[in-house]
Amino acid sequence: xxxxxxxxxxxxxxITPPGHPERVERAHVFDSxxxxxxxxxxxxxxxxxATREALLAVHSAAHCDAMASVAGEARALDLEGDTFSSPxxxxxxxxxxxxxxxxxxxxxxxxxxxxxxVRPPGHHAERDHAMGFCLFNNVAVGAAYARTRGLSRVAIVxxxxxxxxxxxxxxYEDPSVLYVSIHQYPFYPGTGAATETGRGxxxxxxLNLPLPAGATDADYDRLxxxxxxxxxxxxxxxxLFVSAGFDAHQRDPLASMRVTTAGYRRMLDxxxxxxxxxxxxxxxxxxxxxxxxxxxxxxxxxxVDVLSAPARMPEPRTV
Length: 319
Ligand SMILES: [Zn+2]
Fold this sequence. Notes:
alpha/beta; 8-stranded parallel beta sheet; two-stranded antiparallel ribbon; about 40% helix; binds zinc ion
């Protein structure tokens, strides 16, 4: 089951203002990872733009129209002044969301796991607005697309240091999408308390695991072993998505966690093992945050390495 990378040099064409942490150089890291993977014979595919139909499964028509209306323009897209467009951003944001759909098709046909190396990130984008550097919610578009392709249950595990408010609210009342987030709390964007567990039919399908600033590899490892792995085994998703943000890394300039590159490798190892055991190896990872370029490159190198290896079966659960 070979890993597919979905990548494009075009992700450097979304340009943010000087000093912005979600910067073009992050795309150059993606290019470096892609070159190394291709050099070893790895399979790389270019993304296709997300269709309007795929976007409308998770975003309002008004939001899709608002993003389309800034094509060709450099504008601030949110009230906080965090999220910007440049002339090509609309087109690039469509490619970022569409890349996850390419990954879904690959995984769905049993061809192996997929990793989409995209920017802008997605998990803060809500149904009707851009936020937190995110224009469209890439992972949510992919999860909803997987549902339309016949899967009845999918899970999203969000290991970005920030809570994925957009992903949570989009699926908050949906029992078919399990959303699990492990994040620094209290912190931007303010959501993600353990008491936020879903609404209506969706109660129990949102699992928030807030951690205080300064959390280490051991804290993350404990939550994976005690809570995340059992929750995924119980939910038994048919496809596992990973919102792969690497800003919990100790080198990251925005957050205050102390996760190492080895700690991130361990998280990916758990996720790949679980996806192999319960979801037939159907794992689709998509980049989110991660603003230290060295940490980003190290963590992506480890992610590619983990997902390129045959999965190990999980240790038996103890009761
Ligand atoms: Zn983040």
